[in-house]
Design a protein that fits this description.
- This protein has 2 domains: about 5-90, Elongation Factor Tu (Ef-tu), domain 3 (Beta Barrel); about 95-240, 2-Layer Sandwich (Threonyl-tRNA Synthetase, Chain A, domain 2), CATH 3.30.980.10.
- About 20% of the residues lie in helices and about 40% in strands.
- It contains 4 helices and 17 strands.
- A hairpin with a 3-residue loop joins strand 14 and strand 15.
Length: about 240
């Protein structure tokens, strides 16, 4: 099992760990550590990239993924890592922090759409990226409403509200989420302890990704355009303002 340090501190950039699993395959190495800061991807957020370094070897991590309770770090290597070896890990912090800001922005956007179109408006998926992201919603969103949605998002950003996690059981999670027009989905099946992210008493949602500690760190959001995806689904594309 890999301890997920990014849940303890999403701002951690460097860490020390030990190799507990190792496999060489097709010119890359797959390494499992006893603990890691590398996020394996999920909830629309891409996995981290970075470097693992030992006393006489280095791995450039270009893929990270979850296998059961273990997080696998994969990439080309120099030198030969060994089971039990000590590791210094370092993520690409600029990329991660940008994705943290994007992920927070995504949830604020979801709040803004619900505020304008109603709490029953469903989230139909999305994808985060460093330069541009999108979210899909189960409602028809007018192009004329985009400036109003953007204003609501940036108002929450300007308030610089606290953004924090709580861990609760499934029953408590459903009770909390219901008050915010959210609910557990099939993605949360089998999860006993649910991670709820809260922005003051304004927004709450179940999510396993990494986020900023305050809404102000997002700095600002620019909605780029809307696209109709059919069956009443609208996609909103957006980016961050620096």
């Amino acid at each position: 099992m890999t301890i997920k340090l990014y849940y303890e501190d999403s701002y951690m950039r460097d860490f020390r760990a030990q190799i507990i699993g190792l496999e060489f395959k097709d010119g890359v190495v797959q390494v499992v550590l006893d603990r890691t800061v590398f996020y394996p991807g999920g909830g629309g957020q891409p996995h981290d990239i970075g470097v693992l370094t030992g006393s006489e070897w280095k791995i450039r991590v270009h893929s990270v993924y979850l296998v059961n309770d273990c997080i696998v770090h994969e990439g080309p290597f120099e030198g030969i890592p060994k089971i039990g070896g000590e590791v210094l890990g370092r993520i690409d912090w600029n990329r991660r922090y940008r994705l943290m800001r994007m992920h927070t922005a995504s949830h604020i956007l979801g709040y803004a759409v619900k505020r304008i179109y109603g709490l029953n408006t469903g989230f139909a998926g999305g994808l985060l990226n460093v330069s541009e992201s999108y979210d899909d919603f189960n409602t028809r969103i007018s192009r004329d409403d985009l400036p109003m949605i953007e204003d609501v998002v940036n108002d929450v950003v300007r308030q610089n509200l606290n953004h924090h996690q709580v861990w609760v059981n499934r029953e408590e999670a459903n009770e909390i989420l219901l008050r915010y027009g959210e609910k557990l989905t099939e993605l949360h099946e089998g999860i006993v302890n649910v991670r709820i992210m809260k922005i003051n008493n304004l927004i709450a949602y179940a999510c396993g990704g990494t986020h900023t500690a305050t809404t102000g760190e997002v700095k600002g959001v620019k909605i780029l355009k809307r696209e109709s995806k059919g069956a009443g689904v609208t996609r909103i594309r957006y980016t961050l303002l620096d």
